[in-house]
Amino acid sequence: MTLNVDLCALEAKDRYKLLTAVVIPRPVAWITTISEEGIVNAAPFSFFNLFGKDPALVALGLEHHADGSPKDTTRNIRTNGEFVINIATPDLTEAMVGTAAAYTPDEGEPEALGLLTAPSTHVAPPRLADVPVAIECRRTVALTFSPEREIVIGEAVSLAAREGLVDPANWHVHWNGDYPVARLFADRYARLEEIAPQSIPSAPT
């Protein structure tokens, strides 16, 4: 028998619990931003994906505090319109999860956790130096759906990649088995190791 669930009848926390356990795996945007005071913030978000190529758009789902006030990432993006999406590999999962802890606005997660940063080329927020690839973005539009939920659409304007990851002759990316970590549900993350055979038709875009 099939279980049919009326999502509209569920409490929000139960909808979240159910949907995030079935819509998997999800890519993780480890976002760095910078405040007006120059404090660098870092936080992971798994409501994230690529959204287009011309322009190159990304979509981020940002959660506010329960009282509707913005968290550091949202506030910083609102202030200067810039952010960097750092793509983490499994060896960085512990550090990435560590930046999700509650810090005060005058505390920067990279500094508190000893994470190295490197300058960006087109935006003010720095990238995390140890990730294999970082995407510099500028906010295009933000949509507010509730006191706790905002979606930001940003344009990807620059990319920094570890030496050997990208071949500029053909723009092929060579992960060499060290693929980005993906979010599952609760405190579970996935290591992408098994690749489907090439005989399987390409997935729709």
Notable characteristics:
205 residues, alpha+beta, Pnp Oxidase, Chain A, seven-stranded antiparallel beta sheet, three-stranded antiparallel beta sheet, 4 helices, 14 strands, 35% strand, globular
Secondary-structure element string? HEEEEEHEHHEEEEEEEE
Radius of gyration: 18 Å
Could you say how many structural domains there are in total?
A: 1
Separate helix tally = 4
pLDDT < 50 runs, ≥5 residues: none
Task: Chart the SSEs and their pairings.
Layout: H1 12-22, E1 26-27, E2 29-34, E3 40-45, E4 48-50, E5 57-63, H2 72-80, E6 82-87, H3 93-98, H4 109-113, E7 117-118, E8 127-128, E9 133-146, E10 149-161, E11 166-167, E12 172-173, E13 181-183, E14 189-191
Structure in a nutshell:
The chain is of the alpha+beta class. 15% of the residues lie in helices and 35% in strands.
Describe this structure in words.
It is a single chain. Helices cover 15% and strands 35% of the residues. The chain is an alpha+beta fold. It has a single domain (28-178), classed as Pnp Oxidase, Chain A (Roll), CATH 2.30.110. It is globular, with a radius of gyration of 18 Å. The relative contact order is 0.19. The mean pLDDT is 91.
